[in-house]
Each structure stands twice: as structure tokens, then as C-alpha cells.
Design goal:
Membrane topology: Multi-pass membrane protein
Strand order of the largest sheet: 3-2-1-5-8
Number of helices: 7
Order of helices and strands: HHHHEEEEEEEEEEHHH
CATH architecture of the largest domain: Sandwich
Subcellular location: Cell membrane; Membrane
Radius of gyration: 27 Å
CATH class of the largest domain: Mainly Beta
Structural class: alpha+beta
Distance between the termini: 75 Å
EC number: 7.1.1.9
Keywords: Copper, Electron transport, Membrane, Metal-binding, Respiratory chain, Translocase, Transmembrane, Transmembrane helix, Transport
CATH superfamily of the largest domain: Cupredoxins -  blue copper proteins
Number of strands: 10
Largest sheet: 5 strands, mixed
GO cellular component, one term: plasma membrane
Strand content: 15-25%
């Protein structure tokens, strides 16, 4: 019984460490990220902290298990030909080995749900709203709160020869409302550490909406992460995050009649995408023809 009590106390101490470290704010450096990318949004920070806490919890459990295995190997190693005392069961130990894993799983589940709810949380009045329209095989980004010279909202549409650039402000809450014109696509920006399927026919947009707050300026590649057809692999776009002042100036330039390239140049940004390149349709068609001829 004393031995079972010691094991119970050891397991309880490990569990306390698991729950404590999982719930704490984790340091943000390369070592403590355990391979998790840093990300550029507030939501990415939430997911990184969950990942760090989960890895630390797993390591604590692992060290306890490895320690118990090592103890059993040394303590109960064979010392002779005499058959050791046979134990049918150890009720305290069995209770510990049943309850403790359940509590660990429940704790990790709790923190996962909290983080998921935080990442998918929607504010009452986001600072910016952007409509993302996916189609085979490109993207359209619409700024519904603007009005161009033609009376329609400002938008950027990708073509087979031009990568669409999605301009975003930093330090503002941005709501994305996703829609698909044909099949299921997936809006993915790796630096957001987040992607969301764009499901066609979802008229109320309930499941096609998410929000982020970008914290770093820069240019980042975006992709479709759902196999959607022949040219899925080339369905790329670029996110250009700029200061709030440059973002406002960009929209003003677009409303005055400038296109995406000219408006970006007017705020000191490169007009063309630099993180990805358009699909070379002529080369792809030639390769397809050659393959067909070979068949």
C-alpha cells in the first residue's frame, strides 16, 4: 500500500506540472516553440502557446513513464531462479493509472477547446471586412466598405498572368468572409498558421467567416489548400500587410481609379507579387500535349 501511495503522489505531482505548464503563458523563442512557426497574427500566438504547453505536458508524462520503466527494470530484474511473488492486482495503482490519464486528456481537451474558440472568435464590429471569392483557379478580394469610380466596391482579381495581392492593415481586426463560385477551395496563409475551407452554397456565410489581427508588416504567400482541379497547385495569392496609414492611403488610391499595381506603388510598395509567380499556361499546355502524344 505504501508503494502504491508513493506512485500516486508521484503521478499527482506530474499531473500538477502538466496542468500548470499547459495553462501558463509560454515564452516565444525558437527553442520553446518546438518547431512550431512563429506566425504573424494574434491567433497564431494562441495556437503556438497551446502547442508549447502540450509538448511540455507530453514530455513530463514521458519522463514519468520512462522513469517508472527504468525503476521497474532495475528494481525487479531477475536475481535468481526463484519465482517472484505473483500479484493478481493492485487496486490503488489501477485507480491511479485509470484516473490520471483521463484527467490529463480532459485538461488538454479543455485548453484545446479554449484556444479553438479564441481563434474562431468573431467581434461585433471588426475594423475591416474583406470578401474573399474563390474560383477555379484564382482569387478575388473585395473591400465592401469602399467605392470605386464605377460605383462598385474596390476589388482585386487574379488572372493567369497576374498574382492577386491582398492588402491588409496591421493592428486592426480583419474579418474575412469567404465564398466559392464552384467547388470547395481552402483559404490558407501559412504565416497565419490557419486555413479555412471555402464551401460553396453556404449562403449565410456562417461557416465561411474568420477574423485575424496581423502584427507584422511584410509580404507572405497564400495558397489554396484543397485539391480543386487541374491548376490547383498554381492557385496562389500574396498577402501584403502594411501600416494602417498606408492601408488607408492604398484604399484611397484605389477609389480614385488606380489599379492594384499603381496603388501599391503610390504607397511605396512593389506593385507585383514577390512571394510567388503565375502559372505559365503556355509551358503547361505544351507539357500536357507532349504527354498526350506519348500516350
Amino acid at each position: 500500500m505504501a508503494r502504491g501511495s508513493r506512485l500516486a503522489r508521484l503521478a499527482a505531482l506530474g499531473l500538477l506540472g502538466v496542468l500548470t505548464l499547459t495553462g501558463c503563458e509560454m515564452p516565444n523563442n525558437e527553442f520553446w516553440r518546438f518547431g512550431w512557426p512563429e506566425g504573424i497574427t494574434e491567433e497564431a500566438t494562441e495556437m503556438r502557446e497551446l502547442w508549447t504547453g502540450s509538448v511540455i505536458a507530453a514530455l513530463i508524462v514521458g519522463f514519468i513513464v520512462w522513469g517508472l520503466i527504468g525503476y521497474a527494470v532495475l528494481r525487479y530484474r531477475k536475481r535468481g531462479d526463484e519465482l517472484p511473488r505473483q500479484t493478481a492486482y493492485n487496486l490503488p495503482l489501477e485507480i491511479v493509472l485509470t484516473v490520471i490519464p483521463f484527467i490529463i486528456i480532459a485538461g488538454l481537451f479543455f485548453f484545446t477547446v479554449v484556444t479553438q474558440n479564441r481563434v474562431m472568435e468573431r467581434s461585433e464590429n471588426p475594423d475591416e471586412t474583406i470578401a474573399v471569392n474563390a474560383f477555379k483557379w484564382n482569387w478575388e478580394f473585395v473591400y465592401p466598405d469602399t467605392q470605386g469610380e464605377d460605383g462598385n466596391p474596390v476589388s482585386t482579381v487574379g488572372t493567369s498572368t497576374q498574382i492577386p495581392i491582398l492588402v491588409l492593415p496591421t493592428d486592426r481586426t480583419i474579418r474575412f468572409e469567404l465564398a466559392s463560385a464552384d467547388v470547395i477551395h481552402s483559404f490558407w496563409v501559412p504565416e497565419f498558421l490557419f486555413k479555412l475551407d471555402v464551401i460553396p452554397g453556404n449562403e449565410n456565410g456562417r461557416d465561411n467567416v474568420f477574423e485575424v489581427t496581423v502584427r507584422e508588416e511584410g509580404a507572405y504567400v497564400g495558397r489554396c489548400a484543397e485539391l480543386c482541379g487541374t491548376y490547383h497547385a498554381y492557385m496562389n495569392f500574396e498577402v501584403r500587410s502594411v501600416s494602417p496609414e498606408d492601408y488607408d492611403a492604398y484604399l484611397e488610391a484605389r477609389e480614385s481609379g488606380l489599379d492594384t499595381y499603381e496603388a501599391l506603388e503610390s504607397i511605396g510598395q512593389p506593385g507585383d507579387a514577390g512571394t510567388t509567380t503565375p502559372l505559365d499556361l503556355a509551358q503547361t499546355k505544351t507539357v500536357d500535349q507532349q504527354q498526350s502524344a506519348g500516350d
